[in-house]
Amino acid sequence: MDFGIIARAAVLFAVTNIDDILVLALFFAQGAGQRGAAARIAAGQYLGFGGILLASVAVTLGAGLFLPDEAILYFGLIPLLLGIHAAWQVWRNGDDDDDSLADRPISALTVAAVTFANGGDNIGVYVPVFLAVGTGALVAYCVVFLAMVAALVLAAKFVATRKPIA
User: Fold this and answer.
1) Which among 9, 21, 10 is positioned nearest to 154, based on CA atoms?
2) Which residues 6+ apart lie within 8 Å of 45 measured at CB?
3) What burial class does residue 122 get, using C-beta atoms within 10 Å of its C-beta: 0-12 exposed, 13-18 middle, 19+ buried?
4) What is the DSSP string of 78-104?
5) CA distance to 45, 71, 110, per residue, from 51 (Å)
């Protein structure tokens, strides 16, 4: 594998998933003392990120077949539109936090759902990149991304177990 592709994939993963460290740290803090919570959190992160990756590859393959090259440039607007939509929802509905969720055991499906919902912007970033690289590089990106999920989970657990943060 080309080291340049691996490095670009690692950087792209890092910049698009840095916010997940905080989300996962919150899950680790919530799951402190629960038996098997760490494994469920890691499994949920892999499920959620796998969904993001699958959606990105599916859109890439579909977009590459059906869209003209000029249209690909507009995929970068997807994260902006998702952010505007989320802001509109908060403004319209107010802040409806449910504190009773803090007492529930951590579920892999909950972590996966939060990861997937938080990763909509990732899809908007990954698709143009995936369209610009060849099939071999696309596979390399996916392998690097999946390997880096483990590093992300470990970093989040480390952050969550620091006394000032915990």
Assistant:
1) 21
2) 20, 24, 111, 112, 115, 149, 152, 153
3) buried
4) HHHHHHHHHHHHHHHH-----GGGGGS
5) 10, 24, 13
Pair 105, 37: CB distance under 8 Å: yes
Rounded CA-CA distance 51/47 in Å is 6
Q: Classify residue 44 as exposed, middle or buried by CB count within 10 Å of its CB (0-12, 13-18, 19+).
A: buried
Query: What are the per-10-residue average pLDDT scores of the chain (166 residues)?
Result: 89 92 90 90 95 89 68 63 68 61 75 85 88 91 96 93 76
